[in-house]
Amino acid sequence: MTTPVNKVVYAVYGASGFGRGVMPLARAQLKSQLDAEMYDLVFIDDGERADIVNGHQVYDFDQFLALDASEKYVSIAIANSQIREKLINKLQQHQIGSWSIIAPTVIQMDDVQIGEGAVLCHHVHLTSNIRIGQFFHANYFSYVAHDCVIGDYVTFAPSVQCNGNVHIGDHAYIGAGAILRQGTPDRPLIIGEGAIIGMGAVVTRDVAAHTTVVGNPARILTAYPSGS
């Protein structure tokens, strides 16, 4: 279980469906940036698992900690944002760094700022004057238009259409194919902290924190007290 100490170990945390989808992006990114002898690329998974998944060694967290390496970096490929935050806190306690995985087909235009630990899958499009927090996930074919502000631990499923002047709170989840209508500079569309936007929903008005909306136009399905 040892790695030569001159190597850096990069890991994708999560070897289930999304993690297996992210791993080829990680592999291509590292191959384009580093010589092969400089790093190892592995999975971390704490559940029942095979030792090898799609050609990459799989370790549980304790085994990963025991690896002998000069540095270690982890990207969390788990859609549940609450679990993502717990794992990040655990990594930080062990002084393990995060890294962003960005597919080569991602388009970023003018003045786009993204926090650490992002996962941006193929054909994600970020236009101009956008602010995105830490540990953002944007799945395939999603876009974020101009003047949007997105918090920490936000998750976009595939093909989300986030139009201009939308503000999204921490831990919000935007389901596959959802459409968020455009706001205005003085009246942005607000998606509250921890809100869930259902698959295919068309959101035409603000969504309160910790509320689930579905349908076209989107309507409230459930609302939970803050912190529940």
UniProtKB/TrEMBL annotation:
Q: Which CDD domains match?
A: LbH_AT_putative
Q: Which UniProt keywords apply?
A: Acyltransferase, Transferase
The UniProt record lists the EC number as 2.3.1.-
Q: Which GO terms describe its molecular function?
A: acyltransferase activity
Q: Active site: which residues?
A: H146
Q: Where is the PglD N-terminal domain?
A: 11-91
Q: Does the keyword Acyltransferase apply?
A: yes
- Enumerate the Gene3D superfamilies for this protein: 3.40.50.20, Hexapeptide repeat proteins
The site annotation (Increases basicity of active site His) covers D147
Q: Which residues form a coiled coil?
A: none
Q: Name one Pfam family in it.
A: PglD_N
- Similarity remark: Belongs to the transferase hexapeptide repeat family.
For this protein, the record's PANTHER family field holds: ACETYLTRANSFERASE, UDP-N-ACETYLBACILLOSAMINE N-ACETYLTRANSFERASE
Q: What is this protein called?
A: Putative acetyltransferase (WeeI)
Q: Which organism is it from?
A: Acinetobacter baylyi (strain ATCC 33305 / BD413 / ADP1)
